[in-house]
Design a protein that fits this description.
The protein has about 240 residues and is α/β, with parallel strands linked by helices. The protein contains 9 helices and 14 strands. The chain binds zinc ion and fe (iii) ion.
Length: about 240
Protein backbone atom coordinates (compact mmCIF):
# COMPACT_ATOMS: atom_id res chain seq x y z
CA UNK A 1 0.00 0.00 0.00
CA UNK A 2 2.61 2.52 -0.97
CA UNK A 3 2.07 3.46 -4.57
CA UNK A 4 3.56 6.86 -5.37
CA UNK A 5 1.85 8.52 -8.32
CA UNK A 6 3.56 11.28 -10.32
CA UNK A 7 1.55 12.99 -13.06
CA UNK A 8 3.42 14.16 -16.17
CA UNK A 9 1.72 16.64 -18.46
CA UNK A 10 2.24 15.66 -22.11
CA UNK A 11 1.25 17.43 -25.34
CA UNK A 12 0.90 20.55 -23.18
CA UNK A 13 -1.44 23.17 -24.54
CA UNK A 14 -2.45 20.91 -27.41
CA UNK A 15 -4.16 17.84 -25.96
CA UNK A 16 -3.07 18.16 -22.33
CA UNK A 17 -2.60 14.45 -21.74
CA UNK A 18 -1.37 13.01 -18.49
CA UNK A 19 1.08 10.17 -18.31
CA UNK A 20 1.54 8.90 -14.76
CA UNK A 21 4.77 7.51 -13.39
CA UNK A 22 3.84 5.14 -10.60
CA UNK A 23 6.33 3.70 -8.14
CA UNK A 24 5.79 0.87 -5.69
CA UNK A 25 7.79 2.30 -2.82
CA UNK A 26 8.26 -1.09 -1.13
CA UNK A 27 10.20 -2.54 -4.04
CA UNK A 28 11.18 0.50 -6.11
CA UNK A 29 9.52 -1.09 -9.16
CA UNK A 30 7.92 1.52 -11.39
CA UNK A 31 5.67 1.86 -14.40
CA UNK A 32 4.18 4.46 -16.69
CA UNK A 33 0.44 4.63 -17.18
CA UNK A 34 -0.34 5.85 -20.73
CA UNK A 35 2.97 6.93 -22.22
CA UNK A 36 1.52 9.78 -24.26
CA UNK A 37 4.92 10.99 -25.46
CA UNK A 38 8.46 10.09 -24.55
CA UNK A 39 10.35 13.30 -23.76
CA UNK A 40 8.41 14.69 -20.78
CA UNK A 41 8.24 11.17 -19.32
CA UNK A 42 12.01 10.65 -19.69
CA UNK A 43 12.69 14.01 -18.02
CA UNK A 44 10.51 13.08 -15.08
CA UNK A 45 12.08 9.62 -14.77
CA UNK A 46 15.50 11.29 -14.62
CA UNK A 47 14.31 13.73 -12.00
CA UNK A 48 12.98 10.81 -9.96
CA UNK A 49 16.10 8.74 -10.73
CA UNK A 50 14.10 5.70 -11.82
CA UNK A 51 14.04 3.26 -14.70
CA UNK A 52 10.46 2.16 -15.32
CA UNK A 53 9.89 -1.55 -15.95
CA UNK A 54 6.41 -1.38 -17.45
CA UNK A 55 3.94 0.71 -19.40
CA UNK A 56 0.27 0.16 -18.62
CA UNK A 57 -1.93 1.31 -21.50
CA UNK A 58 -5.64 2.18 -21.25
CA UNK A 59 -6.45 2.27 -24.99
CA UNK A 60 -4.94 2.49 -28.43
CA UNK A 61 -5.31 6.19 -29.30
CA UNK A 62 -2.04 7.81 -30.38
CA UNK A 63 -2.10 10.39 -27.63
CA UNK A 64 -1.91 7.54 -25.07
CA UNK A 65 0.74 5.36 -26.73
CA UNK A 66 2.88 7.89 -28.62
CA UNK A 67 5.88 7.32 -26.34
CA UNK A 68 5.69 3.52 -26.25
CA UNK A 69 8.39 2.61 -28.73
CA UNK A 70 10.96 5.18 -27.70
CA UNK A 71 10.51 4.38 -24.01
CA UNK A 72 10.70 0.66 -24.69
CA UNK A 73 13.97 1.10 -26.53
CA UNK A 74 15.42 3.29 -23.79
CA UNK A 75 14.29 1.38 -20.70
CA UNK A 76 13.75 -2.13 -22.11
CA UNK A 77 10.39 -2.12 -20.44
CA UNK A 78 7.35 -4.32 -21.00
CA UNK A 79 4.13 -2.89 -22.37
CA UNK A 80 0.86 -4.22 -20.98
CA UNK A 81 -2.51 -3.24 -22.44
CA UNK A 82 -6.02 -4.36 -23.29
CA UNK A 83 -6.09 -7.72 -25.05
CA UNK A 84 -8.85 -6.50 -27.38
CA UNK A 85 -6.62 -3.69 -28.71
CA UNK A 86 -3.34 -5.61 -28.86
CA UNK A 87 -3.08 -5.23 -32.62
CA UNK A 88 -3.32 -1.44 -32.36
CA UNK A 89 -0.90 -0.75 -29.51
CA UNK A 90 2.71 -0.09 -30.53
CA UNK A 91 5.26 -2.34 -28.84
CA UNK A 92 2.77 -4.27 -26.73
CA UNK A 93 4.12 -7.39 -24.97
CA UNK A 94 1.10 -8.65 -23.09
CA UNK A 95 -2.64 -8.17 -23.44
CA UNK A 96 -4.89 -8.56 -20.42
CA UNK A 97 -8.63 -9.04 -20.13
CA UNK A 98 -11.30 -7.90 -17.71
CA UNK A 99 -10.62 -9.12 -14.16
CA UNK A 100 -7.00 -10.07 -14.76
CA UNK A 101 -4.39 -8.65 -12.42
CA UNK A 102 -0.84 -7.42 -12.83
CA UNK A 103 1.78 -6.62 -10.22
CA UNK A 104 3.95 -3.51 -10.17
CA UNK A 105 6.26 -4.76 -7.47
CA UNK A 106 3.84 -5.46 -4.64
CA UNK A 107 1.16 -3.09 -5.90
CA UNK A 108 -1.69 -5.03 -7.46
CA UNK A 109 -3.50 -3.68 -10.51
CA UNK A 110 -6.83 -5.02 -11.75
CA UNK A 111 -8.00 -4.61 -15.32
CA UNK A 112 -11.58 -3.37 -15.70
CA UNK A 113 -13.10 -3.34 -19.18
CA UNK A 114 -14.69 0.03 -19.89
CA UNK A 115 -15.74 0.24 -23.55
CA UNK A 116 -17.40 3.29 -25.08
CA UNK A 117 -14.58 5.71 -25.92
CA UNK A 118 -12.91 2.79 -27.70
CA UNK A 119 -14.18 -0.78 -27.80
CA UNK A 120 -11.28 -2.26 -25.86
CA UNK A 121 -10.65 0.58 -23.39
CA UNK A 122 -9.63 -0.59 -19.91
CA UNK A 123 -9.29 1.06 -16.52
CA UNK A 124 -6.30 0.24 -14.33
CA UNK A 125 -7.52 -0.17 -10.76
CA UNK A 126 -5.24 -0.51 -7.72
CA UNK A 127 -7.75 -1.48 -5.00
CA UNK A 128 -5.26 -1.60 -2.12
CA UNK A 129 -3.79 1.74 -3.09
CA UNK A 130 -7.23 3.22 -3.73
CA UNK A 131 -6.20 4.50 -7.15
CA UNK A 132 -8.01 4.28 -10.50
CA UNK A 133 -6.54 5.29 -13.85
CA UNK A 134 -9.47 6.19 -16.07
CA UNK A 135 -7.83 7.03 -19.42
CA UNK A 136 -10.42 8.66 -21.67
CA UNK A 137 -13.50 7.32 -19.89
CA UNK A 138 -13.73 9.65 -16.90
CA UNK A 139 -12.22 13.13 -16.63
CA UNK A 140 -12.67 15.70 -13.87
CA UNK A 141 -16.26 16.95 -14.23
CA UNK A 142 -16.75 15.39 -17.68
CA UNK A 143 -16.30 12.17 -19.65
CA UNK A 144 -14.60 11.02 -22.82
CA UNK A 145 -16.21 11.11 -26.24
CA UNK A 146 -17.80 8.01 -27.68
CA UNK A 147 -15.63 7.15 -30.69
CA UNK A 148 -16.04 3.43 -31.19
CA UNK A 149 -18.66 2.15 -28.79
CA UNK A 150 -22.24 3.05 -28.00
CA UNK A 151 -23.77 5.34 -25.39
CA UNK A 152 -25.10 2.20 -23.70
CA UNK A 153 -21.55 0.82 -23.37
CA UNK A 154 -20.28 4.13 -22.00
CA UNK A 155 -23.16 4.16 -19.52
CA UNK A 156 -22.27 0.68 -18.28
CA UNK A 157 -18.60 1.64 -17.98
CA UNK A 158 -19.50 4.69 -15.89
CA UNK A 159 -21.73 2.59 -13.64
CA UNK A 160 -18.74 0.31 -12.97
CA UNK A 161 -16.74 3.34 -11.87
CA UNK A 162 -19.61 4.55 -9.69
CA UNK A 163 -19.68 1.16 -7.96
CA UNK A 164 -16.07 1.50 -6.76
CA UNK A 165 -15.39 2.79 -3.23
CA UNK A 166 -15.87 6.52 -2.64
CA UNK A 167 -12.37 6.88 -1.19
CA UNK A 168 -10.75 5.77 -4.47
CA UNK A 169 -8.77 8.57 -6.10
CA UNK A 170 -9.05 8.74 -9.87
CA UNK A 171 -6.41 9.82 -12.38
CA UNK A 172 -7.73 10.85 -15.81
CA UNK A 173 -5.94 10.78 -19.17
CA UNK A 174 -6.37 14.51 -19.87
CA UNK A 175 -6.60 17.84 -18.07
CA UNK A 176 -9.98 19.06 -19.33
CA UNK A 177 -11.26 20.51 -16.06
CA UNK A 178 -11.14 24.15 -17.20
CA UNK A 179 -13.57 23.40 -20.04
CA UNK A 180 -15.88 21.33 -17.86
CA UNK A 181 -16.27 23.73 -14.95
CA UNK A 182 -18.99 26.01 -16.28
CA UNK A 183 -21.45 23.22 -17.11
CA UNK A 184 -20.77 21.39 -13.86
CA UNK A 185 -21.41 24.59 -11.89
CA UNK A 186 -24.68 25.10 -13.76
CA UNK A 187 -25.76 21.56 -12.88
CA UNK A 188 -24.61 21.73 -9.27
CA UNK A 189 -25.06 25.05 -7.54
CA UNK A 190 -24.02 23.74 -4.13
CA UNK A 191 -21.22 23.89 -1.59
CA UNK A 192 -19.44 20.67 -2.64
CA UNK A 193 -19.27 21.89 -6.24
CA UNK A 194 -18.15 25.38 -5.25
CA UNK A 195 -15.35 23.90 -3.15
CA UNK A 196 -14.36 21.65 -6.07
CA UNK A 197 -14.31 24.65 -8.44
CA UNK A 198 -12.27 26.82 -6.06
CA UNK A 199 -9.69 24.09 -5.60
CA UNK A 200 -9.59 23.31 -9.33
CA UNK A 201 -9.03 26.97 -10.30
CA UNK A 202 -6.30 27.27 -7.68
CA UNK A 203 -4.53 24.12 -8.87
CA UNK A 204 -4.78 25.13 -12.54
CA UNK A 205 -3.44 28.62 -11.80
CA UNK A 206 -0.39 26.92 -10.22
CA UNK A 207 -0.08 24.65 -13.28
CA UNK A 208 -0.89 21.62 -11.15
CA UNK A 209 -3.26 18.79 -12.11
CA UNK A 210 -6.73 18.93 -10.63
CA UNK A 211 -6.34 15.17 -10.05
CA UNK A 212 -6.53 13.42 -7.77
CA UNK A 213 -10.13 13.82 -6.73
CA UNK A 214 -11.95 11.02 -4.88
CA UNK A 215 -14.78 9.19 -6.62
CA UNK A 216 -17.00 10.20 -3.70
CA UNK A 217 -16.56 13.89 -4.50
CA UNK A 218 -16.64 13.30 -8.26
CA UNK A 219 -19.99 11.52 -7.99
CA UNK A 220 -21.41 14.60 -6.30
CA UNK A 221 -20.08 17.04 -8.90
CA UNK A 222 -19.65 15.37 -12.32
CA UNK A 223 -22.94 15.85 -14.20
CA UNK A 224 -22.41 12.67 -16.22
CA UNK A 225 -22.09 10.54 -13.09
CA UNK A 226 -25.25 12.04 -11.68
CA UNK A 227 -27.61 10.90 -14.41
CA UNK A 228 -29.71 8.11 -12.91
CA UNK A 229 -31.56 7.08 -16.06
CA UNK A 230 -29.75 5.41 -18.94
CA UNK A 231 -32.24 6.76 -21.48
CA UNK A 232 -31.56 10.33 -20.33
CA UNK A 233 -27.81 9.66 -20.59
CA UNK A 234 -28.17 8.39 -24.15
CA UNK A 235 -29.91 11.62 -25.17
CA UNK A 236 -26.61 13.46 -24.62
CA UNK A 237 -25.07 11.68 -27.60
ZN1 LIG B 1 -8.58 8.46 -26.50
FE1 LIG C 1 -6.95 10.86 -25.27
Amino acid sequence: MSLKINPVLCRAGVMDNYAYIIIDEQTGISAIVDASEALPVIRKCEELAIKPQYILTTHHHFDHIGGNEELKERYHLQIIGPKAEEHMIAGIDKGLQDGETFLIGKAKAEVINAPGHTLGHVLWYFPEDKALFTGDVLFNLCIGGIFEGTAAQMWTSLQKIKALPDDTNFYPGHEYTAHALAYALRCNNNEVMHTYARRARQRLSEKLPVAPVSLGIEKQCNPYLQIEDERVFEQYF
